[in-house]
Structure formats: structure tokens, C-alpha cells
Amino acid sequence: MSNNISTVRQHLLDTLADLRNRENPMEVERARAVADVARVLVDSAKVEVDFIRATDATGSGFLQQPEHRAAPAPELPTPVASKSDIERTPTGLVHRIKG
């Protein structure tokens, strides 16, 4: 089991599911205890974020980076336009794409 914010979120979602289970519901007091502990963890994560910002750190073990990052979008080619491709009109400029 890893101890990070993702684990906390999963436990909270599991607790919510147990509370909603009509056949075997979780006791309300136990759910409150889970929520209280989660609140303390989230508050400590806020302090950790403030510390990371104040020290210019790149991260922490609790607030881990997402495992799957999307690849950066490819750079678009710089358009090359000649003066003959651009026409000045009374309302502005019109660029004609040749092709």
C-alpha cells in the first residue's frame, strides 16, 4: 500500500460506497472518523504544498506526480507567407493560402 493523496481519495470513495450500501451500511460514526482523518491529511497536504512553493522544490512523496503524463503537443510549423499572399483591404488584411 502506498501512502499518498491518491490512496486517501480511494479510501474516501470506498467509505462513501460503504455508506450507500443498503444491505451492509457503514456506521455513521465510523464514516465521520474516516472523514476527520481525511480532513487532517488534506490539511497537511496544503501545508506541504506551501512548503514546496516556499522552497522552490519540485515535489514530495505524498503529493506524487501523475503516473501517466500526456505527451507534449508537437510544435506547429511556422507559417511562411510572402507579401503577395497578403492583401490589404479597407477592413484589414486577408491572407490567401495557396495550394
Structural commentary:
This protein has 99 residues and is mainly alpha-helical. It has a domain at 5-55. It has two helices and two strands. A two-stranded antiparallel sheet has the order 1-2. The radius of gyration is 27 Å and the shape is elongated. The mean pLDDT is 75. Residues 58-99 are annotated as: Disordered.
Task: Quote the distance from N terminus to C terminus.
Answer: 58 Å
Query: How does the major sheet shape up?
Result: 2 strands, antiparallel
Name the overall outline.
elongated
State mean pLDDT (0 to 100 scale).
75
Strand arrangement in the largest pleated sheet: 1-2
Helix content: 40-55%
User: Roughly how many Å is the radius of gyration?
Assistant: 27 Å
Task: Output the helix-strand order.
Answer: HHEE
Low-confidence stretches: none
The fraction of residues in strands falls at 5-15%
Tally of DSSP helical segments: 2
Instruction: Let me know the number of strands.
Output: 2
Structural class: mainly alpha
Short overview:
Residues 58-99 are annotated as: Disordered. The chain is mainly α. Helices cover 44% and strands 8% of the residues.
Q: Notable features of this structure?
A:
99 residues, 8% strand, mainly alpha, elongated, two-stranded antiparallel sheet, 2 strands
Q: How are the SSEs ordered, and which strands pair?
A:
Elements: H1 5-20, H2 28-55, E1 86-89, E2 92-95
Antiparallel strand pairs: 1-2
Helix pairs in contact: 1-2
